């Protein structure tokens, strides 16, 4: 059984939605056609009843209103039969014996003598063609034939006269069938410029003729065929769109599997600017970051192995020399071994500090950071003097003389931060350079904080490497990264420690030509301003 992927799920959902919509459209269209066909036919039928509206207008003009016709079914039937009614009633008036135009002209045998006769021997000219209502109306809607043909076709169930009625100008029923005027077709009866009534015709209820049913079947077939074509096109379009939309997701899935297998150089093609393109760009950034971190990790492991091997090799040489009797164990040998052990222990401590959580072993007490900085400077004074690096610390002495800033923190960890920064200057600043330390205490308006600046002289750090300077495992390939420049963990440890104390640390180019490190620490609420 094929796997039901997300693209297939979306396609099936779209297909189901389209099928429901198209079936609903086709069904509603067929129902609307069935219901609207009767109203449409009624409009056509009533437009062909103009002869009856003329007779009704003559009746209204002769009587001045509809009162004589009100509820008078006999008069209504006589109006429906037109001038034929007078002939059937045996009227003596010659005008009344005239047949209505829809009757007197039927068939080639119609004719007679009268004033209208204009042919030879007083014969009537050839009869004109049938009147429009007989020519256009279906046979079942034709006016009634003579009584000797069959009794009264108006009484038939499918007769148009069963659906025909008259209402006045206000819509009140006058005579004929009582019809729901909202759905009925209406033909106005105008007397002068005024509408005095309406001839109303109700639509057929149901399809009764073969022609009606055939017409509806043809239209329903057209609607069904159109719906099927639209459904096929919509399904094809849905499939193409689903493949287009989810192709980037498939590519991302394959790329993620490649990254999981260790191929960190894998990237995906980014097309467009939509959410999927943003996802692809984010994935590429993540892969690039992982690739960079992995490369840094390998480089750091190589550097760490080298750093560990150096003191271990020195100790091994000293011990082997003692074992071979080349050297005797004296105070100088012990001092050299002790120095290598201290160096090895410091490196191990740096490795451990870079891997632990910043706040996991933070011992918070009242700490005076300027005192810790002075202690670190005193500890490294001789080494700065040996390299000819001038240390300017007047700002620290000036601030300490005015007040003693206090923070809540770990004295040992803060002392390690200051030592790392000073060691960084000793390792990377050229001999005969300069280190300038600035200190300011900001008041309540700026958050009660202590800011320290460490500015050293050349060489500096390239601008592209500046944002990554505090990253763990990072060692820049510049003149500040010498062979004995350390393992690349010092500044990373500094950042973790300062952030654990709620402060910030930043690096930028120094005006002295080297690096400027800025530390901001929040002061304790009980600190002296």
From TrEMBL:
Q: Where is this region: Disordered?
A: 98-137
Residue ranges occupied by any HAMP domain in the UniProt entry: 243-295
Kindly list the GO molecular function terms attached to this UniProt entry: phosphorelay sensor kinase activity
Q: Where is the composition biased (Gly residues)?
A: 107-121
Which controlled-vocabulary keywords does the entry list?
Answer: Kinase, Membrane, Phosphoprotein, Transferase, Transmembrane, Transmembrane helix, Two-component regulatory system
Family annotation (SMART domains): HAMP, HATPase_c, HisKA
Work out whether the entry's keyword set contains Cytoplasm. Answer: no
Q: Which InterPro entries match?
A: HAMP_dom, HATPase_C_sf, HATPase_dom, His_kinase_dom, HisK_dim/P_dom, HisK_dim/P_sf, Sig_transdc_His_kin-like_C, TCS_sensor_his_kinase
CDD domains per record: HAMP, HisKA
- Name the catalysed reactions: ATP + protein L-histidine = ADP + protein N-phospho-L-histidine
**Which cellular component terms (GO) are annotated to the entry?**
plasma membrane
Give TM segment ranges.
222-242
| Residues covered by the Histidine kinase domain | 303-525
Its localization reads: Membrane
Record-listed E.C. numbers: 2.7.13.3
Q: Give a yes or no for keyword Secreted in this entry.
A: no
Protein name from the UniProt record? histidine kinase
Organism, scientific name: Variovorax paradoxus B4
Q: Which gene name does the record give?
A: baeS
């Amino acid at each position: 059984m094929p796997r039901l992927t997300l693209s297939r799920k979306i396609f099936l959902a779209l297909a189901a939605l389209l099928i429901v919509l198209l079936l609903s459209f086709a069904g509603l269209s067929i129902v609307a056609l069935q219901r609207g066909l009767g109203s449409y036919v009624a409009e056509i039928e009533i437009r062909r009843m103009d002869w009856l509206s003329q007779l009704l207008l003559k009746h209204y003009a002769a009587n001045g209103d509809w009162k004589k016709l009100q509820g008078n079914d006999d008069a209504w039937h006589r109006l429906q039969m037109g001038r034929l009614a007078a002939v059937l009633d045996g009227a003596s008036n010659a005008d009344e014996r005239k047949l209505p135009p829809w009757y007197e002209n039927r068939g080639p045998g119609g004719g007679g003598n009268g004033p209208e006769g204009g042919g030879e021997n007083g014969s009537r000219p050839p009869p004109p063609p049938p009147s429009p209502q007989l020519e256009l109306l279906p046979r079942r809607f034709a006016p009634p034939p003579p009584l000797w043909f069959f009794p009264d076709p108006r009484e038939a169930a499918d007769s148009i006269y069963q659906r025909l009625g008259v209402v006045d100008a206000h819509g009140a029923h006058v005579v004929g069938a009582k019809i729901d005027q909202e759905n009925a077709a209406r033909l106005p009866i105008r007397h002068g410029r005024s509408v005095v009534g309406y001839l109303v015709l109700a639509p057929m209820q149901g399809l009764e003729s073969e022609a009606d049913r055939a017409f509806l079947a043809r239209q329903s077939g057209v609607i069904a065929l159109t719906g099927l074509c639209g459904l096929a096109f919509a399904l094809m379009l849905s499939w193409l769109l689903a493949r287009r939309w989810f192709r980037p997701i498939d590519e991302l899935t394959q790329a993620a599997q490649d990254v999981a297998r260790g191929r960190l150089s894998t990237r995906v093609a980014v097309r467009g600017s939509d959410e999927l393109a943003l996802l692809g760009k984010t994935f590429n950034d993540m892969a690039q970051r992982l690739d960079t971190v992995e490369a840094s990790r390998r480089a750091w492991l190589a550097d760490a192995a080298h750093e560990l091997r150096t003191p271990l090799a020195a100790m091994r040489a000293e011990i082997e020399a003692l074992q071979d009797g080349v050297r005797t164990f004296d105070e100088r040998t012990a001092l050299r071994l002790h120095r290598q052990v201290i160096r090895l222990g410091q490196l191990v401590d740096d490795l451990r500090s870079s891997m632990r959580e910043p706040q996991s072993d933070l011992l918070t007490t009242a700490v005076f950071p300027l005192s810790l900085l002075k202690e670190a400077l005193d500890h490294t004074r001789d080494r700065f003097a040996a390299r000819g690096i001038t240390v300017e610390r007047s700002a620290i002495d000036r601030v300490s003389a005015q007040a003693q800033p206090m923070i809540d923190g770990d004295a040992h960890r803060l002392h390690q931060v200051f030592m790392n920064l000073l060691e960084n200057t000793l390792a990377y600043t050229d001999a005969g350079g300069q280190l300038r330390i600035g200190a300011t205490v900001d008041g309540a308006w700026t958050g009660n904080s202590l800011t320290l600046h460490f500015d050293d002289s050349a060489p500096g750090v390239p601008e592209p490497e500046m944002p990554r300077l505090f990253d763990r495992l990072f060692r820049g390939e510049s003149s500040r990264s010498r062979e004995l420049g350390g393992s690349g963990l010092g500044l990373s440890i500094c950042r973790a420690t300062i952030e654990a104390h709620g402060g910030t640390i930043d690096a930028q180019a120094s005006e002295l030509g080297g690096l400027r490190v800025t530390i901001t620490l929040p002061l304790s609420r009980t600190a002296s301003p």
